[in-house]
Input
Amino acid sequence: MNRKNIESMIPLAVKIIGESGIVHPNKDGIKEIKSEYFGYVDSFGPTVIQGGLLQACAFYSQEDKKADRKNISDIIKKVLLTSGFIPNRFQGDESLSDITEKVMCPPTGPDYVFWRERVLEAAIACKLAIRLFHKDKTKKPEESEGDN
Output
């Protein structure tokens, strides 16, 4: 991984996270992000390392009613697009999983290593950028019912 790439992606990640739908102001006007997004960003890199890039991107690109991991995948994709690491032929509406599958088929050789490193760099930049926002620590109604 290249530290300069990560450092150049951090401001892009801050801007993209700020413009995404996951940031909302609290009653005092402070920008907050639901606490689960911090966990999603933190676990993306280890998921790639342990399970493989294709599997991690596929998992994070799926829509789920309980978890919005897809937002993290979309943010990482936008960081890669903005920083110029996604080839021009993939500027459409493809998910990070679709792009990864097209770039890496077959999953060997220099394209795999290059792409895996760029995705991990973008994930690290997002992980560092998201920490500039406050966590929304309000409990969901279903969580507070069980606390009695």
Summary: The mean pLDDT is 83. The helical segments are 3-19, 35-51, 53-61, 69-83, 96-104, 109-130, 141-145. The longest helix spans residues 109-130. The first strand starts at residue 23 and ends at 25.
